[in-house]
Write a structure and sequence with these properties.
This protein is mainly alpha-helical and 64 residues long. It has one domain (7-62). 80% of the residues lie in helices and 0% in strands. The longest helix is centred in the C-terminal third of the chain and has 25 residues, at 38-62. Bound molecules: zinc ion.
C-alpha cells in the first residue's frame, strides 16, 4: 500500500466496509481519496444503494 490509495483499493475498502469495521487508517485513506475522486464517490453511493436494496428485499422475503 502506497501513501496514495488507488481507485481499486478504494473500491475494495468500500465493499469491505459494508461487511466489517474498517480501521481508522483505512477510513482516513478512503475519505481523503473520496474528496478527490468523483468516480469512487459514485461507486460508494451505488454500492450503498445496491446493498440497501438487497437487504430490504431479503428482509421482506423473510417476513411472513
Ligand atoms: Zn478513485
Amino acid at each position: 500500500m502506497g501513501i496514495k490509495p488507488t481507485c481499486r483499493e478504494i473500491h475494495r475498502l468500500t465493499s469491505e466496509g459494508m461487511d466489517r469495521q474498517l480501521s481508522a487508517v483505512e477510513r482516513l485513506r478512503m475519505r481523503l481519496h473520496l474528496l478527490l475522486c468523483v468516480g469512487c464517490r459514485r461507486f460508494g453511493d451505488q454500492t450503498a444503494l445496491l446493498r440497501r436494496a438487497v437487504r430490504e428485499r431479503s428482509t421482506r422475503e423473510s417476513e411472513p
